[in-house]
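Following up on my earlier thread - several people asked me to post the actual chain instead of describing it. Fair enough. Here it is, all 113 residues.
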Amino acid sequence: MVLDVGKLTSIADYLVLCSAGSERQVRAIADHVDGTLAAQRIHPLSIEGTSTSQWVLMDYGDVVVHIFRMDVRAHYALERLWGDAKHVPLPDHAPAPALAVSRPARTRARGQR
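Reply from S.P.:
Thanks for posting it. Predicted structure:
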């Protein structure tokens, strides 16, 4: 799930929320996201939660990725917290890593709108 939160907060423009059935799957998804974006020279400002892999947060500036173990996602229910955010439609299948959309260069300091 992708939420457009740009009009609701200065923290990020988009939140990506996804779930996995186990800590191993959470870590595998985080590794895949990091590896795919690193191949395009896009690196996170920070990554939190990898030591337990129950909830990994990957901060890419304008986009913050949350990868939850399913029960943890249900507990925190961020989609309800951000209930006013617009849902961004996703394609039925993900593009190949080489075709992923590259992020435009950041022209503003973090936290400024």
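The two ends are 24 Å apart (CA to CA). That should answer part of your original question.
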